Amino acid sequence: MRTLLSVSATFLLALPTFAAPTPAPAPRPVVQAAIESSLTTAGGRIRQFAFDADPATYFASDRNPTKTDHLTLTFDRPVTLKSVAVVTGRPNGDDVLTDGVLEVSADGAAFESAATFEKGKVTADVGRSVKAVRVRPTADLKAPLVVREFTINTDPRVVTFRYPVEFTLDVTDAPEMREWAEKVVRVCERQYPMICDLLASEGFRPPAQIRMTFRASYNGVAEAGGGRITGSVKYFKSHPEDVGAMVHETAHCVQNYRARGLPGWLVEGIADYVRFWKFEPGTAGRLNPERAKFDASYRTSAAFLAFVAGKYDSQLVTKLNALMREGKYSVEAWKTLTGKTVEELNQEWRQSLVR
Ligand SMILES: [Zn+2]
């Protein structure tokens, strides 16, 4: 169902273009990782399932690997790898890795063997600085590569994928965009935990697969719905810096609202709040206090959300999202959450814009 989420971001075209500098990375007490493979995923068994601290989920390849294939976990920076264990094969015991090695790399480029798989499992004490670990078959296999879990003991800690996701890319209409589009997909995957935390609600599991397609025949900027994002070849060729537009669409995929009659301004306002207040803060530009209105949608509504969240409830967006997703949103929510009506909040916000 595309319902409200198919509302496109074409509106952004009517606004002045704002520079989108890369935000300064916040200091992180832990290290993040990425997981890549030469093999394509089969049947929704995505790569991140191999590093999600859940042995019930697993990565599975769609073809039988050869000696040149791999599944590689790369850390954002080198960490001291004390030990590593990898379990392969499906939970029912099928497709364990018969011929393979666990390899480690200090720089993410040159790998050396750390241990050999036996009965589909491996453990190794390493005790040195490592940037990447990978599973590599040592023969052409007669079964797909199935990796259930990497378990690592490192200093500092590397975080597992709390919201496993994999974007698949379709650039059939513009193959020359592939390199750029792959970077965009990596950005969206990297932002996924932030988006999913902000838009969490009880019992909700965000989609684990999102398909991003660039179409020559699509005349908007981008749209999203049902785990699919469509972007315009023409627009993104002339605005390659507008990665934030795809973070906005990724937020729509996580919103996953299905209730009828939800206010479109709030759907778009939350998506632009993700983009302009979390992904690239400080880039939304200034608003005209004379014309600003809470329900003007997109970044204007996002600014309103940021104001109310800052003044009344830092969890405001998370709470509003939960109400929207559960079909329980009404205008009374503002009074319940802040003690003020939305009109009163609108006045306070507009006053705050006057300088
Ligand atoms: Zn949108």
Automatic annotation (TrEMBL):
Residues 1-19 form the signal peptide. Pfam families: BSP (PF04450). InterPro entries: Galactose-bd-like_sf, Uncharacterised_BSP. Keywords: Signal. PANTHER family: PLANT BASIC SECRETORY PROTEIN (BSP) FAMILY PROTEIN, PTHR33321. This is F5/8 type C domain-containing protein. It comes from Gemmata massiliana.
